[in-house]
Design a protein that fits this description.
three-stranded parallel sheet; 45% helix; 8 strands
Length: 254
C-alpha cells in the first residue's frame, strides 16, 4: 500500500518514529510538505530528509496560509521549490479553501497565490496536489486552463464533478474519513478504481474517534473501498498503489 498524502512532519518530535513505523507497513508515503502556519517547508524538509526514498516529498503552499497574502513568504517558498525541483514528485498542496476564507480579500489572496504556484508547476513540468474545499469547480477549471496533471486530495465535492475530473485524466484521493464524510463515500462509490488513490492526510482524518491518524491507517480506506465496490482487498490495494506510482512517477526501492 501507498499513502498518497500525509504530513509526517506534523508529528514533530515523533516524526522519525512515525516514518520508520510506516516503513514496516507500507511501500511508500507521499508527504505533502506545505507552508502552513508554523510548519515552514525548509524545516519540514530537513526533518523528513533522512527518510527520503521511502518518503516522497511534494512542496507547496496551503490555501489557508495563502489567504493571509504574505508575498514575502510566497517568494521564499518559491525559491525553495526551485532549489529542490529535481527532488520533489509534485507541487502541492496548493489550491483554494473557501470554507475558511470568508472575505473577498482572503479569497483574492488565495486565488492569486494558487495561480502563482500553478504557473510554477507548469514551468517545472510537475503535477500538482490540490486542496479544494467549497471551491472544487473553480480549482478544476484553473487546472484545466493551465494544462497540468492534478491530484485532488481528500476530495469532498459533488460526485458528478468527481467523475468529470477523472474523465479529464486527473486522480482523486479517497481518505480515511470515508465513514464519516458522506461525500467521500459517494466519490468512492461512483469513481472507477483506476482513478483513485488512497490517503490518510495524517495526522488528520483518523478513522478512529479521538485518535491521531497515521499513514498505515490507509489500510482502512483500502478495506472500505473494497467493501463498497464489492471487490477483493488485494485488487484495490494493487490498483491504488499502481495509480500512485504512475501519477507521481515514484521510483520504489525493492
Amino acid at each position: 500500500m501507498i499513502d498518497a498524502h500525509c504530513h509526517i512532519e506534523m508529528f514533530k518530535s515523533t516524526a522519525g518514529e512515525v516514518a520508520e513505523e510506516s516503513r514496516r507497513h507500507l511501500k511508500a508515503v507521499v508527504d505533502s510538505i506545505t507552508e502552513y502556519r508554523k510548519f515552514h517547508v525548509w524545516k519540514s524538509w530537513e526533518l523528513l530528509k533522512p527518510h527520503f526514498g521511502f518518503v516522497f516529498p511534494t512542496l507547496g503552499y496551503a490555501p489557508n496560509e495563502a489567504r493571509r497574502g504574505n508575498w514575502e513568504k510566497v517568494k521564499r517558498v518559491e525559491e525553495f521549490i526551485r532549489e529542490h525541483a529535481d527532488e520533489i514528485v509534485a507541487v502541492g498542496e496548493i489550491g483554494l479553501d473557501f470554507y475558511y476564507a470568508k472575505t473577498e480579500e482572503e479569497r483574492r489572496n488565495q486565488r492569486e497565490i494558487f495561480n502563482h504556484f500553478l504557473n510554477l508547476a507548469v514551468e517545472l513540468d510537475k503535477p500538482v496536489v490540490l486542496h479544494a474545499r467549497d471551491a472544487e469547480r473553480e480549482v478544476f477549471e484553473a487546472i484545466q486552463k493551465a494544462g497540468v496533471k492534478a491530484y485532488f486530495h481528500s476530495y469532498s465535492g459533488p460526485a458528478e464533478l468527481a467523475l468529470e475530473i477523472t474523465e479529464n485524466g486527473h486522480i482523486i484521493g479517497i481518505n480515511t474519513g470515508i465513514d464519516f464524510i458522506p461525500e467521500v463515500r459517494k466519490a468512492a462509490e461512483v469513481l472507477p478504481l483506476e482513478s483513485i488513490v488512497v490517503e490518510t492526510d495524517a495526522p488528520y482524518m483518523s478513522p478512529y474517534k479521538g485518535e491521531k491518524n497515521y499513514p498505515w491507517n490507509v489500510e482502512y480506506a483500502v478495506r472500505r473501498i473494497a467493501e463498497i465496490k464489492g471487490l477483493e482487498f488485494g485488487e484495490v490495494e494493487r490498483t491504488t498503489e499502481r495509480n500512485a506510482v504512475e501519477f507521481f512517477r515514484l521510483r520504489l526501492k525493492d
